[in-house]
Amino acid sequence: MSDAVNCEYCVNYSYDDDYECYTCEVNLDEDEMVKFITGNFNQCPYFKMGDEYRIVRKQM
Protein backbone atom coordinates (compact mmCIF):
# COMPACT_ATOMS: atom_id res chain seq x y z
CA MET A 1 0.00 0.00 0.00
CA SER A 2 1.29 3.45 -0.88
CA ASP A 3 1.71 6.15 1.76
CA ALA A 4 1.28 8.89 -0.83
CA VAL A 5 -1.18 11.66 -0.02
CA ASN A 6 -3.57 13.20 -2.51
CA CYS A 7 -4.04 16.83 -1.50
CA GLU A 8 -7.33 17.04 -3.42
CA TYR A 9 -9.01 15.05 -0.63
CA CYS A 10 -7.56 17.11 2.22
CA VAL A 11 -9.62 19.59 4.24
CA ASN A 12 -6.69 22.05 4.14
CA TYR A 13 -6.57 22.16 0.31
CA SER A 14 -8.88 24.90 -0.93
CA TYR A 15 -9.32 27.32 -3.81
CA ASP A 16 -7.72 30.74 -3.33
CA ASP A 17 -9.55 33.46 -5.24
CA ASP A 18 -6.58 35.84 -5.03
CA TYR A 19 -4.15 33.40 -6.66
CA GLU A 20 -6.85 31.68 -8.78
CA CYS A 21 -5.58 28.20 -7.90
CA TYR A 22 -5.78 25.59 -5.16
CA THR A 23 -3.43 26.05 -2.22
CA CYS A 24 -2.65 24.38 1.09
CA GLU A 25 -3.98 26.44 4.00
CA VAL A 26 -1.42 25.03 6.45
CA ASN A 27 1.51 27.30 7.24
CA LEU A 28 4.24 25.09 5.74
CA ASP A 29 7.91 25.69 6.48
CA GLU A 30 10.37 26.20 3.62
CA ASP A 31 11.30 22.52 3.18
CA GLU A 32 7.67 21.40 3.29
CA MET A 33 6.69 24.07 0.76
CA VAL A 34 9.33 22.87 -1.71
CA LYS A 35 8.01 19.32 -1.40
CA PHE A 36 4.42 20.55 -1.83
CA ILE A 37 5.20 22.59 -4.95
CA THR A 38 7.23 19.81 -6.58
CA GLY A 39 4.56 17.20 -5.78
CA ASN A 40 6.83 15.16 -3.49
CA PHE A 41 4.81 15.74 -0.31
CA ASN A 42 4.23 12.15 0.84
CA GLN A 43 3.06 11.23 4.33
CA CYS A 44 1.82 14.74 5.06
CA PRO A 45 1.44 15.22 8.83
CA TYR A 46 -1.33 17.79 8.22
CA PHE A 47 -3.48 15.62 5.96
CA LYS A 48 -7.07 15.33 7.13
CA MET A 49 -9.60 13.59 4.93
CA GLY A 50 -12.34 15.98 3.81
CA ASP A 51 -15.92 14.88 4.29
CA GLU A 52 -18.31 16.97 2.22
CA TYR A 53 -21.34 14.99 3.41
CA ARG A 54 -20.76 15.33 7.17
CA ILE A 55 -23.33 18.14 7.52
CA VAL A 56 -25.93 16.25 5.47
CA ARG A 57 -25.63 13.17 7.68
CA LYS A 58 -26.28 15.30 10.77
CA GLN A 59 -29.47 16.68 9.22
CA MET A 60 -30.95 13.20 8.68
Q: Can you tell me about this structure?
A:
This protein has a two-stranded antiparallel ribbon with strand order 1-2. The chain has one domain. It has helices at 30-38, 54-59; strands spanning 13-16, 21-24. It has 2 helices and 2 strands. The model has no long low-confidence stretch (mean pLDDT 79). With 60 residues, the protein is an alpha+beta fold.
Structural descriptors:
single chain; alpha+beta; two-stranded antiparallel sheet; DUF6472 domain-containing protein; DUF6472
Tell me the domain tally. 1
Helical content band: 25-40%
Computed Rg: 14 Å
Count every helix, treating DSSP H or I runs of 4 or more residues as helices. 2
Largest sheet: 2 strands, antiparallel
Order of helices and strands: EEHH
Low-confidence blocks of residues: none
Tell me what portion of residues adopts beta-strand conformation.
5-15%
Mean pLDDT across the residues is: 79
> Which structural category do the helix and sheet elements fall into?
alpha+beta
Shape summary: globular
Count of beta strands:
2
- Within the largest sheet, what's the order of strands? 1-2
How far apart the termini lie comes to: 35 Å
Organism: Blautia wexlerae
Pfam family, one: DUF6472
Protein name: DUF6472 domain-containing protein
Domain DUF6472: 6-60
Brief synopsis:
The chain has 60 residues and is α+β, with helices and mostly antiparallel strands. The chain has helices at 30-38, 54-59, and strands at 13-16, 21-24.
